[in-house]
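Re: that chain you flagged

S.,

Sorry for the slow reply, it's been a week of failed gels. I finally had a moment to sit down with the sequence you sent. For the record, here it is as I used it:
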Amino acid sequence: MDPQQHSAHQPTVTQTTGISGPNTLNQNPWERWRWDWQSRNNALHWALRNFMHWSPGHYRETPAGHQALKGLPPEAIDLGNTLLDCYGLKHLPQRASEQRVLETLTYLHWLDQIFQQHPHFFQGLTSCQPDAGQPFRWLDVGAKNWAYVEALDGFIRQQLSKNADKAKLLAPVAETSAPTYELDGVELDPHRRYTNLQTRAQAAQAFIQHLPHAAYHAGAIQQWQQPADIISLFLPFVFEEPHLAWGLPLNHFAPQALLNHLLDLLAPGGLLIVVNQGEVEAKAQASLWSQVQAAHPNLRLQIESLGQLDAPFIEYRYPRMGWLCQKQPVH
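Prediction finished late last night. Pasting the structure tokens below so you have them in one place:
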């Protein structure tokens, strides 16, 4: 599975202004040449990965079963069982590996924290009208192998059941004219391979086989044009070094343009959830928010810094820092 951090490649920041483009951090000519060379090398390998789609067999994982939470402190075990029960995921340990269970609980706990702290942001968002052909839409950007997809799906289902008639909105797909919600994950590098030669996309398809409303998409998010009510962006690259270290070319590094595009996709009243790795990246994200607001003074955004998010299930080297942005409706 993908490590859920790029901590080994935290940048040594010598300049944090103008982070919207590739020529941003270190203007030393040698470093610039090295990064340009690595970017060209990444572009070649990225193209080869996207050309060679074949993978052996089907992705399989060993279910954790009753041992999923065994290594955690008692309070974390209690919290994990509460989250699994509250969000309808008690079955998850019977079909997911221990790592995926813990990752799912981590993301679910983040979403639960955000909702508990700011429930007013979510009011009305999930009051969709499927009969009118307008399902609730969630877009997850940079999904990697989507190991945490069941956290998103469980959170959506629980929110729908709170905000509308459960029998109507959660009826089986076959009994409704349109799905009650759509959950889309988009990944730029879906054919990145693991040591067993299987790919992120292959893993993601295995993880969503029991989730009829979820779909995994390969490609650049800049090509995505479907609007969304909630957009999630977990651990985005805001510096060149981690972006390059994960094998991506610099022509796909444009954090400001990415943020602008996501806000264009966001429906009025919708939410953009961002989680950064560490305080340095969170400060860079704050700069991005400021640049967006300066460039679009007529765009009404309510941006809340959530500070450090609690992560009792996985010990991270760098803390996870959260943001919540609501695109205010234009009256």
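What I noticed first: The domain at 27-52+118-327 is CATH 3.40.50.150 (Rossmann fold).

Talk soon,
D.
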